[in-house]
Design goal:
- Helix content is about 35%, strand content about 35%.
- The strands form 2 sheets. Strands 6-5-10-9-8-7 form a 6-stranded mixed beta sheet. Strands 2-3-1-4 form a 4-stranded antiparallel beta sheet.
- A hairpin with a 5-residue loop joins strand 8 (about 205-215) and strand 9 (about 220-230).
- By secondary structure, the protein is of the alpha+beta class.
- The longest helix is centred in the first third of the chain and has 17 residues, at about 45-60.
- It has 2 domains: about 5-130, Alpha-Beta Plaits, CATH 3.30.70; about 130-260, Nuclear Transport Factor 2, Chain: A (Roll).
- InterPro entries: NTF2-like_dom_sf, SnoaL-like.
- Pfam families: SnoaL_2.
- It comes from Novosphingobium rhizovicinum.
Amino acid sequence: MSPDHLKRNESELAALRHDAEAGRDGPVLMLNLNTYKAEAGFPDGAPYRAYMDALAALLQVSGGRILWRHPVLGQMVGEPEAFHEALGIWYPSGQAFLSQPTMPGAEESYRLRAQCVERATIHRCGAAERPLDAHKALVRTFFAALANGELPDALLTDDMIGWSTTQGTMSKASYQNVIGLLGRMVAEPLTFTIDAITAEDDRALAEVRSAGRLVDGTGYANTYVFAFRFREGRICSIAEHFNALVVQDTMIPLMAKLNGAPA
């Protein structure tokens, strides 16, 4: 049985169960608003991390997935409520959500939840896109940002790692600097044509072509395969595979000029 501060709303659960039994079931997004106990050590404490690990394990069994997870930094409107974190959790069906308490790993997940969570509310937000569709949408957003020469923090995890054929492994900041430099190198935004996006689990591959003109008048076109990894609704890894000879003949000399070094 759940403690008082984590009581289930039986009328809402009954409505969800009725929809499932009436054939109106389908993917659903649950908005979780959590307030943590001091002993949970949110956001870096061992009890909180153990709870998140147990929740992730339970979701793997139920087919659910955390689409995004963000700390609550402040409350702009409404009566003060001290929520610490908001989580968007996708489930393949309402029945999957309802069945979680009886699934393998549920006992440990709920034990840690009671240990860490002081207060929680869960809001059913209706039908939700599949995580793979969300990942494909993130890929398209990435290329729109890439064309503009600016890669915002909101797209990336704090520990995001980049890699490219010509520059190897880069930190998040270094990768963003490279994208910014690309924006300075083109006379107008490059056109990126996405030929295909293949998504599976936490990964996606994009087959892409670019075309445009550099600020020195040189035409530029290349072909790529981008490999993405995602975590909680953001990109945590990007690997760019492209024709290095094209970059060497066109972009590298211009990059040296823009950086003030001899070509």
